Amino acid sequence: MENKITTLKEIAKRLNFSISTVSRALHNHPSIGLRTTMQVQNLAKELNYEPNQTALFFKQQKTHTIGVVLPSLKEEFFSQAINGIEDVAQLNNYSVLIGQSHDDIEKEKQIIVAMKNHHVDGLIISISKHTKEYEHLLALERYNIPVVFFDRVPELPKVHKVSSNINTATRQAIEFLIKKGHRRIGVINGPDEMQSCKDRTKTYMDVLQKKRIKIDMGLIISNDLTPGSTRAAMQTLLKLKYPPTAILTINDYVALDAIQYARKNKLKINKDISFVSYANLPITNYLEHPPLASVEQYPYEQSKKAAQILFELLEKRNNTNDKESTYNHILIEGDLVIHKK
Amino acid sequence: MENKITTLKEIAKRLNFSISTVSRALHNHPSIGLRTTMQVQNLAKELNYEPNQTALFFKQQKTHTIGVVLPSLKEEFFSQAINGIEDVAQLNNYSVLIGQSHDDIEKEKQIIVAMKNHHVDGLIISISKHTKEYEHLLALERYNIPVVFFDRVPELPKVHKVSSNINTATRQAIEFLIKKGHRRIGVINGPDEMQSCKDRTKTYMDVLQKKRIKIDMGLIISNDLTPGSTRAAMQTLLKLKYPPTAILTINDYVALDAIQYARKNKLKINKDISFVSYANLPITNYLEHPPLASVEQYPYEQSKKAAQILFELLEKRNNTNDKESTYNHILIEGDLVIHKK
DNA sequence: CTGTTAGCGCATTCAT
DNA sequence: ATGAATGCGCTAACAG
């Protein structure tokens, strides 16, 4: 069994050609004679020659690898997002390096450094829910590594980003609840740092104001997306003198925890208290009492778009040396999906 | 703004040393004078020198990258498994290349070729549910890429693998149902190709025989893990003259589909019909009527163990040139977790 | 203690 | 039409 890896040198030696001739022959270079080309290609096939990618990576200063940094694959949103990225990467003959921050900023920094060291050609990032300083992200620009953010994007103007616009859907969600007669609508929102959370609150207040419903700030609670924090939020809301009859939760995981809490407190879901949420997780289909509606945020489409932008950037970079001066800020419309009328 | 990437050459030129001296100084080589070492290290820091990893990868014939190939990250089992691998990889200063086969053999082959081309130092693989030919897997050995399989492992003796032993837990699961008075216990199993499915059926028959319960092969159905196939299986089972009062399903996803089907057919879950399953998905905690019990298969531990074995192999490979002659076949005991008494 | 040289695999420029 | 030489960045064997 021949186990040695075949190199150009090996082929050259056997055929008594120079390495450059062999290299050219394999690339069907016009200046190489047909006979020679055939000889070389045949032997290459016979010896099962395959170009050493690491050598190419090294020489071309390109690794044909993109890095993906996201909070956690356990969240179905992100595990679906990976698919969009993988699909686009495969089309472009790229591989995908993965790193989960688990919403830990230090971990996020470490991963990004590791990816930079690996010389990934580009990065797709969804930042941790606690990331407020962007220095480690901006550093990437200095290394000339193009970055596209998606879903959880930083509040920076000079970056490429794809995220979900939930404002319309949020408006619809709240109007939907109001139409069903709810007047006291609670909000279990995420950390105030997250742009989407600010948007959510703003839209909520907008709609209520427009519908001339009194806004009670006591009904709006920020949590950190953990089950414990959701339970605490629920406790606060349910203990109010006039507790909400409906609650808007930042995502389906929080909704699940909230619903569970409500159930344990003998509340009838969708009767005593209703929920509307975000993410539209497939899993909610299996619940007997799912949230009434959930805002679909299209993780696959978001991440796919992000990947496409990244590859466009890589393409451009090949042709020009200019820094790009315009930045993609793509918004993908979220859609309210009604589960129960 | 200094944007040029610093190399040894650059430092050497500025300090008028040779490249090798600079290299040694940076590695604190004992033969380099303290003064020189300090000079070099200071300038290196100042210029923000970082060794070019791709050059190192190339030279050392190592990429500090491992590949992970698995069916789908959407399954929480695998998205948890990734954590075990990532954790171990990080400890060893490795990065993780990811590829999902989506249970498509061709995709699986493509991914493996891509990973081989990327010269990953090792691979961790969970094969697709349809993979019966192992040629593309065995090929890796010829490239000297160590492989450790986990969870969905091939039936090959000369490979390293980590999987879950579900026999004891399956026995307990069935005894649990029998103790609750069930005599007609259905099985919705997975594809017959999967070793774990064969084991499941075998244990099922064993237990029934031992308990002197008549075995009705009509109660055992293989499916392909899709919702449609699960519904078909349920339809068949429920249409039997004597339908089962309890069903053992291959995993919680199948259980969810089965439960949903039963609910739509007005059956009371855990009353008219009970379920016991595998995977112990966190999500089932949120169901009002979850499976009575589920077998925990410890994805994190399985994958972590697989990763540890892989790094041991890599370690060994550094020290000796021998092929390993013994193979790790690790079994991690599954545990029956009771959700409802 | 430090410098010179070679080489990893490949593409490419410059000769011939 | 082909070969020789160069260089990518780094390490290490060899030479003083």
Short structural description:
Chain A is an alpha/beta fold and 341 residues long. Chain A has helices at 8-15, 19-26, 34-46, 53-60, 76-91, 105-117, 135-142, 167-179, 195-210, 227-239, 252-264, 299-319; strands spanning 65-70, 95-100, 122-125, 147-150, 160-165, 185-189, 220-222, 246-249, 274-278, 293-296, 329-333, 335-338. Strand 2 of chain A pairs antiparallel with strand 2 of chain B, so a sheet runs across the interface.
Can you walk through the features of this model?
The structure is a homodimer of 341-residue chains. The first copy, chain A, has 341 residues and is α/β, with parallel strands linked by helices. Chain A folds into three domains: 8-51, no CATH class; 63-164 and 299-331, Response regulator (Rossmann fold, 3-Layer(aba) Sandwich), CATH 3.40.50.2300; 166-296, Response regulator (Rossmann fold), CATH 3.40.50. Helices cover 44% and strands 16% of the residues of chain A. In chain A, the strands form two sheets. Chain A has a six-stranded parallel sheet with strand order 2-1-3-4-5-11. In chain A, strands 7-6-8-9-10-12 form a six-stranded mixed sheet, sandwiched between helices. In chain A, helix 9 links the parallel strand 6 and strand 7. In chain A, 45% of the residues are buried. The model of chain A has no long low-confidence stretch (mean pLDDT 95). Chains A and B meet through helix 4, helix 5, strand 2, helix 6 and helix 11 of A and helix 4, helix 5, strand 2, helix 6 and helix 11 of B.
